[in-house]
Amino acid sequence: GSYHNPHEHIIFKVIEAIYTVGEPDFSKVLDLASGSGEVTRALKALGYTHVDSIEPYTFNAYFERTGKLAEKYCFEDIEAGILSERVYTTIICSFALHLAVPSRLPTLSYQLSRIAPKLLVITPHKKPQIQSQWGWTLLKELLVERVRARLYQSDNW
What we know:
Layout: H1 8-22, E1 29-32, H2 38-45, E2 51-54, H3 59-66, H4 75-79, E3 90-94, H5 105-113, E4 118-123, E5 136-144, E6 147-154
Parallel strand pairs: 1-2, 1-3, 3-4
Antiparallel strand pairs: 4-6, 5-6
C-alpha cells in the first residue's frame, strides 16, 4: 500500500512530451496497471481528470495518492475480455506492460486495441515490442532520460 515509483518525475516529463508531439486525446483515459497513480497525477497536472484506473496490486497506494479507487483486474482478466464493453480515448500503461507473460501479450494487446484508438506504453526497457498483427501501429517513439514512450494507433478503429 505504500508503493511509489521513483521515476515519477520522468513519467510526468514523458506524458508532457508525448502530449506535445503526438497529440493524443486524453479526454477519457484508462491508466492500466496504475501503480501509485503517477500517470493519473501527470494527467491531472495537464488538466485531465477523467481517468479510470486498473491496479490489482498497489490499489491502496493509488487511492492514497489520488483519492480515486482502482479496479483490481489483472492482465488475464483483460485478456479474457472483461473490458470489452468499454471505450477510452487513450490507454496508458506505465512501467508494467513489459511484465505481461510474453505468450499472452498478443491476446492482451488485441483486447486493448478494441477499447481505445490509442495506446501509450511507457517503459524503462525496449520491451514489450507490440507487433502490428496484434492490432496496433506505432505512431511515435520518444526517449526521455532513458525511459521509452511508444504511442500506438489501434487498427480496430
